[in-house]
Design a protein that fits this description.
10 helices, single chain, 13 strands, 4-stranded antiparallel beta sheet, 7-stranded mixed beta sheet, binds 4'-deoxy-4'-aminopyridoxal-5'-phosphate
C-alpha cells in the first residue's frame, strides 16, 4: 500500500551488514571480526569502573581518546577525529567533504557502504571497474572528480594498492579530498599505510578502526587522521548533527587499550600466520585465492558454485560471506578465525568438495 506522504520522504536502499547469529556454536567467519579477545585492559577497566560518571554527558570532544590516539600515532590532537566505528567516521566524512557537482569516484568492487552514503546524501558518484585481476587501475583516478575513496587494502578483495600509486592519486586531485579507508591496514606489510603522508598532503584523510585488528568491533570506535583544517571541518559537521556520538565507556576503553600494542601485534601476527596456512589449504582444494593483506581471503572454486558452498557451510554451522553481485558472485569472503576454526572449515570443504 502506498501512503499519501510517500513521495515526500527520503527513501534509501540500506547497507546490509553480515548476519550476527545468536548461537554460540556457530563458526562465524562472515564479518571480518578478530577471533581473539580484546586486550586485558578492557576487563581491568570495567572492573575498576566508576559508574557514577555515567550520570553525566560525555566530553563531546572525546578529548581523552583523541589525545591518546594522537600520542600513539605521533600526531597533534588537532589531526585526529573520532567516531562511532569507522562507518560513522566515513559517513561524516562523505557529508563534510563531498559537496561538489562533480562525481566522487571509487571502485566498482569495494566496501558496499560507499554508494549507500552517496545515495543517502545525494552525492553524485561513479564507480570505476577494477582490472580483470581485481586490482585498482590507479590511472583511472587521475582526472577531474568530486573526491576519491579508496579502501586500502580493498574489501572484499583483500588486495593492497601500492602507496606510490595512492600518492599519484592524491597529487592529481589537490582540489578534492582523497579518503583512504585503512580498516584492514594492520594486517598488511609494514610501511603500507598512508598515515605518514598526512603532513605532506592537506587533501588526504586516513580512516582507521578498532573493529578488526583491535578485536573491538562491539565497542564501535573509528577515527580519521588528516590536516587540522580537514579535522576542523569534520567536527563542525559532527557538532551540527549529533554532538555526543562517543559514549563514556567507549572513550574510556578506547583510551585504555591503545597502548597495549604488544598484545595487538601478537594477535595480528597469529591471524596473518593462519591466513597464509589457510590460503595454501584452499589452493590444495581447488580454490583460486586473491592475494590478501587483510584478515580475510576472497576465493573462488574451480568447479563448485560459491553460492552453494556458502549455503552448505551455513547448514553445517559455518558462516562465511557471499555477495550476489556482478563480477564477484562466484567468490566467497572468508574471515580468518582461530586455527581450530579454520581447520574445521577445511574439514567441511574437503568433505563437501570430494
Ligand atoms: N571500511 C571497511 C572497508 C570495512 O570493511 C568495514 C567493516 N564493515 C568498515 C569500514 C566499518 O567498520 P567499523 O564501522 O566497524 O569501524
Amino acid at each position: 500500500m502506498a501512503y499519501k506522504w510517500e513521495s515526500n520522504i527520503r527513501k534509501v536502499v540500506p547497507y546490509v551488514p553480515g548476519e550476527q547469529p545468536k548461537d554460540k556454536n556457530i563458526i562465524k567467519l562472515n564479518t571480518n571480526e578478530n577471533p581473539y579477545p580484546p586486550s586485558k585492559k578492557v576487563s581491568e577497566m570495567v572492573e575498576n569502573a566508576d559508574f557514577d560518571i555515567l550520570k553525566k554527558y560525555p566530553d563531546a570532544t572525546a578529548g581523552e581518546l583523541v589525545e591518546k590516539l594522537a600520542e600513539f600515532h605521533g600526531l597533534d590532537k588537532s589531526q585526529v577525529f573520532v567516531g562511532v566505528g569507522s562507518d560513522d567516521v566515513l559517513g561524516m566524512s562523505f557529508m563534510t567533504f563531498f559537496n561538489s557537482d562533480k562525481k566522487v569516484i571509487f571502485p566498482d568492487i569495494t566496501y558496499s557502504f560507499y554508494p549507500v552514503w552517496c545515495d543517502l546524501l545525494k552525492i553524485p558518484y561513479e564507480t570505476i571497474p577494477l582490472k580483470e585481476d581485481f586490482t585498482i587501475d590507479y590511472e583511472e583516478y587521475l582526472g577531474e572528480c568530486g573526491g576519491v575513496v579508496i579502501a586500502n587494502p580493498n574489501a572484499p578483495t583483500g588486495i593492497l594498492l601500492d602507496k606510490e600509486k595512492i600518492i599519484k592519486i592524491i597529487e592529481a586531485n589537490p582540489e578534492v579530498i582523497v579518503i583512504v579507508d585503512e580498516a584492514y591496514i594492520d594486517f598488511a606489510p609494514e610501511g603500507s599505510s598512508c598515515l605518514d603522508l598526512i603532513d605532506r598532503y592537506d587533501n588526504l584523510l586516513v580512516v582507521r578502526t578498532y573493529s578488526k585488528s583491535r578485536s573491538l568491533a562491539g565497542i564501535r570506535i573509528g577515527y580519521a587522521m588528516g590536516n587540522p583544517a580537514l579535522i576542523k571541518y569534520l567536527n563542525d559537521v559532527k557538532y551540527s548533527y549529533n554532538s555526543y556520538t562517543m559514549n563514556v565507556p567507549s572513550i574510556k576503553i578506547g583510551s585504555a587499550v591503545i597502548d597495549d600494542d604488544e598484545y595487538f601485534k601478537g594477535t595480528i601476527s597469529k591471524v596473518v600466520k593462519t591466513r597464509e596456512w589457510f590460503t595454501e589449504e584452499l589452493g590444495k582444494l581447488g580454490f583460486f585465492v586473491l592475494p590478501s593483506s587483510t584478515n580475510f581471503v576472497f576465493a573462488s572454486h574451480k568447479d563448485k558454485a560459491a553460492k552453494d558452498i556458502f549455503q552448505e557451510g551455513k547448514n553445517r554451522g559455518i558462516y562465511i560471506r557471499y555477495f550476489n553481485q556482478p563480477r564477484i558472485d562466484n567468490f566467497l569472503r572468508i574471515t580468518i578465525g582461530t586455527d581450530e576454526e579454520m581447520k574445521k572449515l577445511v574439514e567441511f570443504l574437503t568433505d563437501y568438495l570430494k
